[in-house]
Design brief:
By secondary structure, the protein is mainly α. Helices cover about 65% and strands about 5% of the residues. It has a two-stranded antiparallel ribbon with strand order 1-2. The longest helix has 21 residues. The chain is globular and about 45 Å long.
Length: about 170
């Protein structure tokens, strides 16, 4: 399985890990767990570096598992050896991000209503409540933009270096 250089990713994850949790919604008393935020951001950063299929897949999550699942688990395991991360949460975030990217490319909304429905899908979990991954990304983007960008840029760099070695 491919190895990637993880030191820059881990340094940025440590910065995010040291950030203090921020309360999201006082009415429902929900706050973001930093460990969850770290795993979510890592999963999204990885998913953003995976190639999409050339055509629409009927089940993009299943395609992800078949095509990229082993690589993603390997990268998460490699990072987890030096920096403890919730790998299943990161993997779940990677799947959700990948499916969203797939659908934006291969099933574009045809009007504003379709676009709003797409946003509603992203923001809801299977039970109709807020999706914790989306809430985490929104918090991280507003509260820790520099660190978030560092995680994403270092992950992009690691994947581009891995591709150059192949």
């Amino acid at each position: 399985m491919a190895q990637i250089e993880t030191s820059l990713i881990i340094n940025n994850l440590r910065k995010l890990n040291n950030a203090s949790p921020v309360e999201i919604n006082k009415e429902v008393d929900k706050s973001i767990d930093i460990g969850f935020a770290v795993a979510t951001i890592l999963g999204i950063a990885i998913a953003m570096n995976l190639p999409l299929p050339a055509t629409k897949m009927p089940l993009p999550a299943a395609y992800f598992a078949r095509t990229h699942g082993d690589l993603v688990r390997s990268v998460l395991s490699q990072i987890n050896e030096s920096f403890l991360v919730r790998t299943q949460i990161a993997y779940d975030a990677a799947v959700k991000c990948y499916v969203a990217r797939h659908n934006l490319v291969h099933v574009p909304p045809t009007d504003l209503n379709g676009f709003m429905n797409r946003l509603d899908y992203l923001y809801q979990d299977g039970l109709g409540s807020d999706d914790i991954h989306v809430r985490t990304v929104l918090w991280t983007h507003t509260a820790q933009t520099d660190i978030l960008n560092g995680v994403i840029k270092s992950t992009n760099l690691a994947f581009s270096q891995m591709k150059n070695k192949e």
